[in-house]
Design goal:
368 residues; Serine Threonine Protein Phosphatase 5, Tetratricopeptide repeat; globular; 20 helices; mainly alpha
Amino acid sequence: MPGKSRKSKTSPKPTTLSLDKLLEKGDACLEEGDMDEAEAAYAKALALAPQSPEVLVRLGALLLDTERYEEGVNYLREVERLSPEDVRPLHLLGAFYIEEGEFDLAEEYFKRALKLEPNEGLSHYNYGNFLSEAGRLPEAEVAYRRAIELGPEEPLHYLGLGGLLADMEKYDEALKQFQIALELDPDDPRIYLDLGDLLMAMEQTKEALEAYRESVAIDPHNPLARYGLGAALLADGEAVAAARELKDAIADGLEVPLAFVKLGVALRMANKLDESREAFQQACELLEEERSSGAEIGDMCYEETIALLGLGRASAAHEVVDNLRADDLDPQAVAELSADLRRLATLGLEEANELLRKLRLPPKELIH
């Protein structure tokens, strides 16, 4: 009949997702790496419950991950106000302030979390992370071991202790911790990545390659795993494969001088000279950006030496080495510098041999 609605009486009515459903949707999107959809779901949840700690803590964490620090910190501090017994914002803010270099403030947050939950392994594990970053290694070991005691089924606790022991060059002990972590969770790409790094330090390149490949197979877009695999392939003499992995690492976001330096060496070994120069040039440009932002010169001397040498600027590379102080390079950086100088020397760069002689490194320090 004219004027009568054409809609069926059984037409579905628009529905509004509940708070719990929106949080579930946001969590699922976050798990899949879709940050925009996750944020949209959490924003809708916030509109429904503007003072919900469950919503605010998720939004705060997401905003920190997406480098909107001021907003993220504000949300997390609001959770502190609304739910003073909730340790989640304390852990997140503590980790944030470590990244900001504000160690006193970071420690304050982690100690508050420990006071609230003294028998939770996570609180001791995160405090161990802080102590490790602060260079307080014996205290960090105590914290990690306490985390393991309280949470023996959590692989991350063993991973934390293993990483610390590796930093202390207690490689065999570190390997045992990583093996326990793998037994507990054989599908965690982070464990294989850290294991690969450890095996490289132990000069077990073939085994490191296997570990990195497992990490990449589980998480193909992890740039650190791709970089590790590329560096291990380079150490194994597989320059073409190394260049491919290093390019993938850079494409996935690892646009740092070290990645371009390693890529430049790999391309040079693969006789792709123009591409190699481009990589070394990119490394130099990134180093200049870091220098202008106040980075420590000593932290960049390895990358700068190789990049300058790769560009044919031997005198500038010599100047960098001549200005090195004993504490400018840690043993791993010394080993990396020496290994790449040796690679360039085998390609006919006599200046690389000259730089090696200046460094006067005993053979045992040439890890790769």
